[in-house]
UniProtKB/TrEMBL annotation:
<protein>
    <submittedName>
        <fullName>Sugar phosphate isomerase/epimerase</fullName>
    </submittedName>
</protein>
<dbReference type="InterPro" id="IPR050312">
    <property type="entry name" value="IolE/XylAMocC-like"/>
</dbReference>
<feature type="domain" description="Xylose isomerase-like TIM barrel">
    <location>
        <begin position="26"/>
        <end position="240"/>
    </location>
</feature>
<dbReference type="InterPro" id="IPR036237">
    <property type="entry name" value="Xyl_isomerase-like_sf"/>
</dbReference>
<dbReference type="GO" id="GO:0016853">
    <property type="term" value="F:isomerase activity"/>
</dbReference>
<keyword id="KW-0413">Isomerase</keyword>
<dbReference type="Pfam" id="PF01261">
    <property type="entry name" value="AP_endonuc_2"/>
</dbReference>
<dbReference type="InterPro" id="IPR013022">
    <property type="entry name" value="Xyl_isomerase-like_TIM-brl"/>
</dbReference>
Length: 264
């Protein structure tokens, strides 16, 4: 099955569009998610001015921008419409006031963004994330319940699905009606200090190449084939060990993912 194989360009977030486009296409990708953040080349404050030309530079290199990782301010929606970017990816952060209050707050923000999503024709994609966020795909589905499907989508993430203890053969069918983008990365739990005689010890997620972690990419890609999903599949380029260049790991992971999907 053939997907729009994409990459999150966070590792090269300060590069201009023409340089980034050549790098991404040279790695074998035809799609990209780009950060629109204060630390990136395109910032939210400058998005209306910079994003259309930035995306045009990537398209000239054969790379389509599938989404931006940003926030839900109106200038970001306006910039995406002007640039032809279909989606803004966000996460639902949890605050010190607890899960229930945080989810209510996140829901209000999404409801406030609904007129912008409809008016500008730009979707909002919500991704689960381990730690201080809504961490499961089903939690995101609950968060989005009742919001228009055509405007609010789920970004399913292989690593965070596995870290939440879930199975793609269960979660992907359950989010299928809202599935917008599939993120591929992988992770394990790594002990951060010797546990000694203490029970449990301290553990943290450690992001690894696709073949080495808790997430079963083959099961996920097989499930996508069963669902008939033809949307973007985005490799996140997140690896905790800096000892190998991210570009080298991405080339290997893209080959593994294409092979698992039966792509030529």
């Amino acid at each position: 099955m053939t997907f729009l194989w994409s990459v999150f360009t966070k590792p090269w977030s300060t590069l201009p569009g023409d340089t980034l486009g050549g790098l991404v296409s040279g790695l074998g990708f035809t799609g990209a998610e780009i950060p629109v953040r204060d630390t990136a080349y395109v910032t939210p404050a400058e998005a209306v001015r910079l994003l259309p030309e930035f995306t045009a530079r990537l398209r000239a290199e054969g790379v389509e921008v599938i989404s931006v990782a940003s926030d839900l301010r109106e200038p970001v929606f306006a910039a995406c419409r002007e640039a032809g970017v279909p989606m803004i990816r966000v996460m639902a952060e949890l605050g010190p006031d607890g899960y229930a209050a945080s989810v209510r707050r996140a829901r209000r923000r999404l409801e406030d963004a609904a007129p912008l999503a409809e008016g500008y024709g730009v979707q909002v994609g919500v991704q689960p994330h381990h730690g201080r966020y809504v961490s499961s795909a089903l939690g995101v589905m609950d968060l989005l319940d009742g919001l228009p499907v055509q405007h609010f989508r789920v970004i399913w993430d292989a690593a965070h699905d596995a870290l939440a203890g879930d199975d793609p053969r269960i979660t992907l069918p359950l989010v299928a009606e809202r599935l917008g983008i599939v993120n591929l990365k992988n992770a394990i739990h790594k002990r951060t200090e010797p546990a000694g005689e203490a029970v449990g010890g301290h553990w943290k997620p450690w992001f690894v190449p696709g073949s080495e972690g808790l997430a079963d990419w083959s099961a996920a890609l097989g499930q996508l084939a069963e669902l008939g999903f033809t949307g973007p599949v985005c490799l996140s380029g997140q690896y905790s060990d800096p000892g190998v260049p991210v570009e080298k790991r991405l080339v290997a992971d893209l080959a593994a993912a294409r092979g698992a999907a039966g792509a030529v």
